Amino acid sequence: MELEWRDLAFHREIGAVIEALDSAQFWTRLTRALERYVLFDNWVALRFAPGEAPLVCAESPTPDGTVDAMFQDYLAALYQLDPFYIAATDKPASGFVTLADVAPDNFSMTDYYQRYFRKNIVGDEVHFNYMIDARHTLAFSLGATQRYGDRDLAVLELCAPWVIALLRQRLPYETFGATQQQRGDAPAEATMDAATDTLATADTPAYAARFEQVASVAGRSPLTAREVEVAMLTLSGFSTRAIAEKLTISFETVRAHKKHIYTKLNVNSQSELFALFYEAGRQGG
């Protein structure tokens, strides 16, 4: 077998990643190995679980070293509109996932996309997911200011088997929950058991509490469980027809639910509905 210098450099990088499995340098080494072949602008490693805010393993540093305020908004509430979070908690599975795989049909028209995604990630995003168990997924996200090309996606998918295998091997050494600014240079030495000491109940989604809080303000009428579901799917980017298919109800029933939601919450548009949800999330997060 003949190897080119690029192959040798790749093998050295992979060796460095494996060597760092039990150290605080693991995520940096992993991103360095991948950025030799695909350009991306930001990255974050998270643990997803139904009904819980994502827990942070590590994140790319901001240029000035300060806390990313928009990312804090994501962790407080906006994660509930994230198509990657929704997909990972709805049907958890290990694998390589692109934005096109999970984005709802009206995703680019949502306020979440316009006010958060475009400003924070800007162009595109992919995930390497490792399904820890039926409730938990370790997600490694790569965000780019431009759309990934076919070559980029092909290369990342080719890397997926060893990246996901490394995520599995990393798990026993991972510390969940603290942001990069909070952790500093502390070694990652917590176990999965310590990370799962407190679990929210999956039966009560966090967004239900958000809408309960919204309804309690200024004497608004509370939403039914089905109306909360429709509201969240609407904010996430599902069209009326897509909501009907997902919930196995009629198109007209979805329209009726939307009318009731707007009337009860005294809003006239999806943007106003998003503003209520966003503010409640910031206050409650």
TrEMBL record:
<dbReference type="InterPro" id="IPR016032">
    <property type="entry name" value="Sig_transdc_resp-reg_C-effctor"/>
</dbReference>
<dbReference type="GO" id="GO:0006355">
    <property type="term" value="P:regulation of DNA-templated transcription"/>
</dbReference>
<dbReference type="GO" id="GO:0003677">
    <property type="term" value="F:DNA binding"/>
</dbReference>
<protein>
    <submittedName>
        <fullName>Helix-turn-helix transcriptional regulator</fullName>
    </submittedName>
</protein>
<feature type="domain" description="HTH luxR-type">
    <location>
        <begin position="216"/>
        <end position="281"/>
    </location>
</feature>
<keyword id="KW-0804">Transcription</keyword>
<keyword id="KW-0805">Transcription regulation</keyword>
<dbReference type="Pfam" id="PF00196">
    <property type="entry name" value="GerE"/>
</dbReference>
<dbReference type="InterPro" id="IPR000792">
    <property type="entry name" value="Tscrpt_reg_LuxR_C"/>
</dbReference>
<keyword id="KW-0238">DNA-binding</keyword>
<dbReference type="InterPro" id="IPR036388">
    <property type="entry name" value="WH-like_DNA-bd_sf"/>
</dbReference>
